[in-house]
Amino acid sequence: MTIAVIWQEDGFQWCAADTRLVSGDEPTTEIATKIYAIPVVVSAPRLGLPSRQPPHYWTEYGFVYAGAPLPATMTAIMASTFLQRLVGPDANAPTFEQIAEFVCRLARRFMTDRRRFRANRRPFGSDDDGIFWAALFGWCPHEMKYKIAHIDPKNNAGSFRVELDYPSPPETDGEPWLILARISHNGGSERAVGRVCETPR
Predict the structure, then answer these.
(1) What does residue 147 show for φ and ψ, rounded to 5 degrees?
(2) What is each CA distance from 131 to 15, 86, 150, 153, in whole angstroms?
(3) Which domains does the chain have, with CATH numbers?
(4) Cα–Cα distance for residue pair 133/153, rounded to 1 Å
(5) pLDDT 10s digit of each residue in the chain, 201 long?
(6) Rounded distance, CA 99 to CA 110, Å?
(7) Which terminus of the chain is more solvent-facing, meaning fewer CB atoms within 10 Å of its CB: N or C?
(8) For the residues of 97-160, what is the DSSP string, one character each?
(9) φ and ψ of 141, to 5 deg
(10) What residues have CB less than 8 Å from 100, skipping those under 6 apart?
């Protein structure tokens, strides 16, 4: 089982996630990272020069996931690598939604790739079906408020897609803003049977 939760309390946004990774029924580690920091750094171009100027825009978002660890980790690492090397004028600093859409595209790419390789080896239905649920979250300097982007894969009747939505914050301080969970049960073969993703009203 994987569970992660994001909430807002005392003027700050918080995130917590379990640290266990399992393969089948067997834990593989108790100290895995499921929360990542994704820096966004923009430097101005230096025309005619090979190097960049010092950054004129810098912020950082959190990324947390529940589900398949390999494509989720690859998404976080690739997003972090790309987004801290942006070049452009100050007026074009990316918005939270632009960053979320980019991270969602990476997530879709890595989930699709993992599912393609797993389909060649064994049928889906195990914990390693290449699917993960994730959230990008943090303080949006453009709108001066906390935000969450929810990356939500769907696999209905063999039609795989990844959706992106922006849950509204709860009205009560300290209540969960977003919960991601993946639960496995054994019934002959292991399969993922549940996911909770809720925005309390």
Answers:
(1) -140, 160
(2) 21, 28, 14, 7
(3) 2-20+32-196 (3.60.20)
(4) 7
(5) 678 999 999 999 999 999 888 776 677 778 888 999 999 999 887 776 666 677 888 999 999 999 888 999 999 999 999 999 888 876 678 999 999 999 999 999 999 888 887 666 655 444 457 889 999 999 998 899 999 999 999 887 778 899 999 999 999 999 999 999 876 544 322 323 233 443 333
(6) 17
(7) C
(8) HHHHHHHHHHHHHHHHHHHHHHHTTS-S-SS-SS-EEEEEEEEETTTTEEEEEEEEEEEETTEE
(9) -70, -20
(10) 136, 149, 164, 166
What confidence score (pLDDT) does residue 52 get? 61
- Residue 152 tokens read as 């939500």
Residues 6+ apart with CB under 8 A from 151: 103, 104, 107, 133, 134, 135, 136, 162, 163, 164
Cβ–Cβ under 8 Å, residues 135 and 116: no
Give the sheet arrangement for strand 189-196, strand by strand.
12-17, 2-9, 176-187, 189-196
Give 153's strand partners.
162
CA distance readout (Å), 141 to 78, 138, 163, 164, 201: 22, 9, 24, 21, 25
pLDDT of residue 46: 72
What 3-state DSSP class applies to 17? strand
From the list 68, 44, 138, the residue with the least C-alpha distance to 100 is 138
